[in-house]
Amino acid sequence: MFKGFSRSVIGASHVKKNIVCQDSSAYKIYEDFSIAVVADGHGSKKHFRSHIGSQMAVEAAVETVSSFCSDYESIEKELKENYDMILKNIEKQVIARWHKKIMKHFSENPVRPDEKKQFTEDEFSKIPIESYYGSTLVAAVMGRNFSFGFQIGDGSLVAVMEDGEAAMIMDYEESNPANITASICNKTASTMFSHFYTDKKKIFAIFVSTDGLYTSFGSDYDFLDYHTIIASQLYDMAVFESSVVKNITKRTHFGTEDDISLSCVYNGKTAESNAVVLRQKIEENKRRANARKARSNNR
Predict the structure, then answer these.
(1) Distance (Å, rounded) from C-alpha 146 to C-alpha 83?
(2) pLDDT per residue as tens digits for the range 204-236
(3) Rounded to an integer, what distance in angstroms lies between the CA atom of residue 79 and that of residue 86?
(4) Euclidean distance between CA atoms 133 and 103, whole angstroms
(5) Structural domains in the chain (count)
(6) CATH number of the domain within which 87 lies
(7) CB 3.0–4.6 Å: which of 113, 147, 240, 263 could bond 36 by disulfide?
């Protein structure tokens, strides 16, 4: 029933500066549910192993969701009864798994001289080990009868409905102080997540992406319309993959020139029939875009 896709592309600014891609992405398909995940390692000085941290954040999310949803009938019932508690438990388990992974990596890979040389001894002594690996995380899950997602830090989650409408159904708002970045490495990370759950909406596909994709668009309208367009290509994965990889690679030269990761899961059974509806929605979106442009020009 479910199919998926994921890809991470290095940003133009990282190529110029000879910096590794700090994004990671993955998807996992099971009979009753599917998972799409992206993570964006922080680029600042103290997060010098964030590319590893983002990979481990993705792994931790996939492993945790897979474990929680392994008894599908049970998790479906529990989510109906108290989804908020279940999702908070999932988020806490993701953090715990991530910590275990990064501490194992640290024990096997002590800080190298070339990693430490950019700091004074005093500066370095004040950086928690977790910060070396700091990362954001966005995850989406589609089940046979429910969907949910969770997020810490920036990035986007877009659902494309069966009628072609695209929406950011989990609007992420950082409630933490301005000088604290929402990150899986924070001591209070479990309080910084946002999440959503639904067993009502007729979702065809869910896309998650790092903020490099969002910043390559001029408006929310354009960003959402883009998801309707690419969703219309999901019935032919070969065409979709070629088109999307080419496009997001091009988009790494727009906006912040950041790395871009895109991952999705969708209903493979309805992909072909939904393509017709989605193409009609694309034409409708074009008319709306032209109307907005005309109104803007007349002001």
Answers:
(1) 11
(2) 999 999 999 999 999 999 999 999 999 999 999
(3) 6
(4) 10
(5) 1
(6) 3.60.40.10
(7) 263
Between the CA of residue 3 and those of 106, 173, 235, 256, what are the distances in Å?
35, 30, 10, 30
Cα 200 to Cα 162: distance, rounded to the nearest angstrom:
12
Encoded tokens for 195: 């999440």
pTM score, whole prediction: 0.95
Residue 21 lies in domain: 2-297
